[in-house]
What does this fold into?
Amino acid sequence: MKKNYCPIDTFINSIKGKRKGTIILHLNQGDKRYSELVKLLPDISERMLTKQLKELESDRLIKRTVFSEVPPRVEYSLTALGKEIYPILKGMFKGGVLFEKSKK
It folds into this structure.
Protein backbone atom coordinates (compact mmCIF):
# COMPACT_ATOMS: atom_id res chain seq x y z
CA MET A 1 0.00 0.00 0.00
CA LYS A 2 1.36 3.44 -0.94
CA LYS A 3 1.95 5.77 1.98
CA ASN A 4 0.22 9.14 1.75
CA TYR A 5 2.31 12.08 2.85
CA CYS A 6 2.60 15.77 2.28
CA PRO A 7 5.94 17.52 1.72
CA ILE A 8 4.72 20.31 4.01
CA ASP A 9 4.59 17.80 6.87
CA THR A 10 8.13 16.65 6.03
CA PHE A 11 9.35 20.25 6.17
CA ILE A 12 7.51 21.09 9.41
CA ASN A 13 8.76 17.91 11.10
CA SER A 14 12.35 18.87 10.24
CA ILE A 15 12.16 22.37 11.72
CA LYS A 16 9.74 21.90 14.60
CA GLY A 17 11.33 21.79 17.98
CA LYS A 18 12.56 24.15 20.63
CA ARG A 19 14.02 27.08 18.69
CA LYS A 20 15.26 25.16 15.61
CA GLY A 21 14.04 27.90 13.28
CA THR A 22 15.78 30.53 15.40
CA ILE A 23 19.02 28.54 15.33
CA ILE A 24 18.88 28.48 11.51
CA LEU A 25 18.15 32.22 11.40
CA HIS A 26 21.21 32.92 13.60
CA LEU A 27 23.48 30.62 11.58
CA ASN A 28 22.47 32.42 8.40
CA GLN A 29 24.30 35.45 9.83
CA GLY A 30 27.51 33.39 9.98
CA ASP A 31 29.15 30.39 11.60
CA LYS A 32 28.68 30.25 15.36
CA ARG A 33 30.50 28.51 18.17
CA TYR A 34 28.45 26.59 20.69
CA SER A 35 29.04 29.24 23.36
CA GLU A 36 27.74 31.95 21.01
CA LEU A 37 24.54 29.99 20.44
CA VAL A 38 24.11 29.57 24.20
CA LYS A 39 24.26 33.36 24.59
CA LEU A 40 21.90 33.96 21.67
CA LEU A 41 19.32 31.51 23.06
CA PRO A 42 19.24 32.11 26.82
CA ASP A 43 15.68 30.80 27.17
CA ILE A 44 16.57 27.14 26.50
CA SER A 45 18.80 24.83 28.48
CA GLU A 46 22.17 23.75 27.13
CA ARG A 47 20.90 20.18 27.11
CA MET A 48 17.96 21.15 24.89
CA LEU A 49 20.21 23.26 22.63
CA THR A 50 22.55 20.29 22.18
CA LYS A 51 19.59 18.05 21.32
CA GLN A 52 18.24 20.52 18.75
CA LEU A 53 21.68 20.95 17.16
CA LYS A 54 22.07 17.18 16.84
CA GLU A 55 18.64 16.88 15.20
CA LEU A 56 19.38 19.72 12.77
CA GLU A 57 22.69 18.05 11.91
CA SER A 58 20.94 14.71 11.44
CA ASP A 59 18.46 16.38 9.06
CA ARG A 60 21.45 17.83 7.15
CA LEU A 61 20.39 21.44 7.79
CA ILE A 62 23.53 22.37 9.73
CA LYS A 63 27.12 21.19 9.78
CA ARG A 64 29.22 20.70 12.91
CA THR A 65 32.95 21.27 12.48
CA VAL A 66 35.37 20.20 15.21
CA PHE A 67 38.80 21.84 15.16
CA SER A 68 41.65 19.81 16.62
CA GLU A 69 42.87 22.46 19.02
CA VAL A 70 43.39 22.60 22.75
CA PRO A 71 40.85 23.37 24.07
CA PRO A 72 38.65 21.86 21.35
CA ARG A 73 36.67 24.30 19.25
CA VAL A 74 33.36 23.45 17.60
CA GLU A 75 31.56 25.63 15.05
CA TYR A 76 28.14 25.25 13.50
CA SER A 77 27.22 26.45 10.03
CA LEU A 78 24.36 26.07 7.59
CA THR A 79 24.58 23.43 4.90
CA ALA A 80 23.43 24.14 1.34
CA LEU A 81 20.01 22.74 2.33
CA GLY A 82 19.91 24.97 5.41
CA LYS A 83 20.70 28.01 3.26
CA GLU A 84 18.00 26.99 0.80
CA ILE A 85 15.26 26.85 3.44
CA TYR A 86 16.34 30.12 5.09
CA PRO A 87 14.03 32.31 2.93
CA ILE A 88 11.08 30.13 3.92
CA LEU A 89 11.90 30.56 7.61
CA LYS A 90 12.39 34.29 7.14
CA GLY A 91 8.89 34.43 5.64
CA MET A 92 7.54 32.48 8.60
CA PHE A 93 9.27 34.96 10.92
CA LYS A 94 7.54 37.86 9.16
CA GLY A 95 4.23 36.00 9.36
CA GLY A 96 4.73 35.54 13.11
CA VAL A 97 5.34 39.28 13.51
CA LEU A 98 2.11 40.01 11.63
CA PHE A 99 0.11 37.64 13.84
CA GLU A 100 1.61 39.18 16.99
CA LYS A 101 0.67 42.69 15.81
CA SER A 102 -2.87 41.60 14.97
CA LYS A 103 -3.42 40.30 18.50
CA LYS A 104 -2.66 43.66 20.13
Remarks:
- The chain has a mean pLDDT of 91.
- The chain has one domain: 7-102.
